C-alpha cells in the first residue's frame, strides 16, 4: 500500500465502531507477534552449553535466562546472527522479501528500511540458512561442478585491475578467475553444495568423503577427480561422458544436478553478480527455495534464519 493510501486508511480508523475495532485488532495482533512465535526458548546456555537455565526477567520483549553454572545471562537470540538486530517487527516482512527473491533495493522498499539495512539483514538472515544442507547422501548420488566468476563486488580495493564492462573473465575456459562450486544430490532430493578453493582430488575428497555413504553409487561426468575419489574410497562409480552423446545410462545420469545448475544460474541473473565472499549465502538461499517450493512462507523462512533446522521436516528434504 502506498503512503497516500495508508494515510487515508488511517484517517478512517476513528469512524470504526467498537465491533469493527475488535475485528481489526484480532487481525493485527497475531501478525505483530509472528516474530515472537518463531523464537523458541533456549535449551542450553550459549556461553558454556549447560542446560541449567532459569528465568531472569526480560529485555526488549524477550525473556532472559541466567545460567546456574557460569552465571551469565542470555536470551534466545544470544550467539546467533540475529542477536542485537533491531526492528524485530519487520523481520517477517523481510523474510517475505527473501521468499520472493527481491533485490536489496526492492526489499528495502518492501520493508520500509534503508538499502544498507536491507543488505545487512540479507546476510544476517542467510547466515544460518546457508548451513542447512544435507549431511548424508545415499543410493544413486549425482555430483557435478559449476563455476562462478570471481567477484570483489562491494570492496573498495581490488587485487586486480577492474573489469570495465564486467561479467566476463579475461581468459576463456577455466582459470583462477572461476570459482568452482560442487553440487551433490541424491535421488531422494538430499542436496549439498560446496564452494571449493580448487577443483582437484584433494578438495573433492574432503567434501565427498563425509557426505556419501559407502554403499552409494556415484554418478558424475568423466572428470578424473571423481574417478580417483571413487577408487580410493571403494565407492561404485558410474561416469557419464556427454561428449560422446551419452547423457543417460539407464538409471544413471547427472540430469538432476545439471538442471539445478541451470536454475541456480538463472535465479542469480537479477542480482547482477554476487560477491565471492557471500556466494555460500546465496547457495543456501537457493537451497531454501528449492527445499520448500510452494510450501515456503515468511514464518518458515524466519525460523530457518533463526537456525531451527527441524523446519525441513515439513517437506521430503
Task: Give the secondary structure arrangement, pairings included.
Layout: H1 3-11, H2 18-32, H3 34-37, E1 53-59, E2 62-67, E3 73-74, H4 91-99, H5 104-111, H6 115-129, E4 140-149, E5 178-186, E6 191-195, H7 201-208, E7 217-220, H8 224-233, E8 236-239, E9 248-249, E10 252-253, H9 255-268, H10 279-292, H11 298-305
Parallel strand pairs: 4-7, 7-8
Antiparallel strand pairs: 1-2, 2-3, 4-5, 5-6, 9-10
Helix pairs in contact: 4-5, 4-11, 5-6, 6-10, 7-8
Write a structural description:
The chain is an alpha+beta fold and 317 residues long. Among the domains are: 46-79, no CATH class; 140-153 and 175-274, Ribonuclease H-like superfamily/Ribonuclease H (Nucleotidyltransferase, domain 5, 2-Layer Sandwich), CATH 3.30.420. The protein has helices spanning 3-11, 18-32, 34-37, 91-99, 104-111, 115-129, 201-208, 224-233, 255-268, 279-292, 298-305, and strands at residues 53-59, 62-67, 73-74, 140-149, 178-186, 191-195, 217-220, 236-239, 248-249, 252-253. The strands form three sheets. A five-stranded mixed β-sheet has the order 6-5-4-7-8, with helices on both faces. A three-stranded antiparallel β-sheet has the order 1-2-3, with no helix packed on it. Helix 4 crosses helix 11 (298-305) and helix 6 (115-129) packs across helix 10. The longest helix has 15 residues, at 18-32. The radius of gyration is 24 Å and the shape is globular. It starts with a helix and ends in a 12-residue tail after the last helix. The model is unreliable at 312-317 (pLDDT under 50). This is ISXO2-like transposase domain-containing protein. Residues 154-173 are annotated as: Disordered. Residues 136-291 form the ISXO2-like transposase domain. Residues 161-173 have a biased composition (Basic residues).
Amino acid at each position: 500500500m502506498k503512503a497516500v493510501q495508508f494515510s487515508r486508511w488511517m484517517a478512517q480508523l476513528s469512524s470504526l465502531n467498537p465491533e469493527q475495532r475488535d475485528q481489526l485488532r484480532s487481525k493485527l495482533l497475531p501478525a505483530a507477534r509472528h516474530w515472537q512465535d518463531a523464537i523458541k526458548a533456549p535449551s542450553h546456555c550459549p556461553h558454556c552449553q549447560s542446560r541449567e537455565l532459569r528465568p531472569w526477567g526480560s529485555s526488549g520483549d524477550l525473556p532472559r535466562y541466567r545460567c546456574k553454572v557460569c552465571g551469565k545471562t542470555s536470551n534466545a537470540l544470544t550467539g546467533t546472527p540475529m542477536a542485537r538486530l533491531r526492528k524485530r517487527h519487520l523481520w517477517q516482512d523481510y523474510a517475505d522479501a527473501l521468499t520472493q527473491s527481491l533485490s536489496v533495493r526492492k526489499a528495502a522498499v518492501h520493508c520500509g528500511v534503508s538499502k544498507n539495512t536491507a543488505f545487512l539483514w540479507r546476510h544476517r538472515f542467510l547466515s544460518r540458512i546457508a548451513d542447512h544442507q544435507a549431511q548424508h547422501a545415499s543410493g544413486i548420488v549425482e555430483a557435478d561442478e559449476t563455476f562462478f566468476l570471481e567477484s570483489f563486488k562491494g570492496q573498495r580495493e581490488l587485487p586486480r585491475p577492474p573489469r570495465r564492462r564486467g561479467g566476463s573473465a579475461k581468459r576463456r575456459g577455466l582459470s583462477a578467475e572461476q570459482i568452482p562450486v560442487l553440487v551433490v544430490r541424491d535421488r531422494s532430493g538430499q542436496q549439498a553444495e560446496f564452494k571449493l578453493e580448487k577443483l582437484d582430488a584433494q578438495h573433492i575428497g574432503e567434501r565427498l568423503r563425509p557426505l556419501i555413504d559407502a554403499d552409494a553409487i556415484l554418478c558424475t561426468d568423466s572428470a578424473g577427480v571423481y574417478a580417483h575419489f571413487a577408487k580410493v574410497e571403494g565407492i561404485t562409480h558410474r561416469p557419464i561422458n556427454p561428449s560422446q552423446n551419452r547423457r543417460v545410462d539407464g538409471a544413471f545420469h547427472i540430469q538432476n544436478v545439471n538442471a539445478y545448475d541451470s536454475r541456480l544460474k538463472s535465479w542469480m541473473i537479477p542480482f547482477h553478480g554476487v560477491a565471492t565472499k557471500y556466494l555460500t549465502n546465496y547457495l543456501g538461499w537457493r537451497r531454501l527455495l528449492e527445499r520448500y517450493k510452494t510450501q515456503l512462507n515468511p514464518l518458515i523462512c524466519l525460523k530457518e534464519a533463526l537456525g531451527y533446522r527441524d523446519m525441513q521436516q515439513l517437506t521430503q528434504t
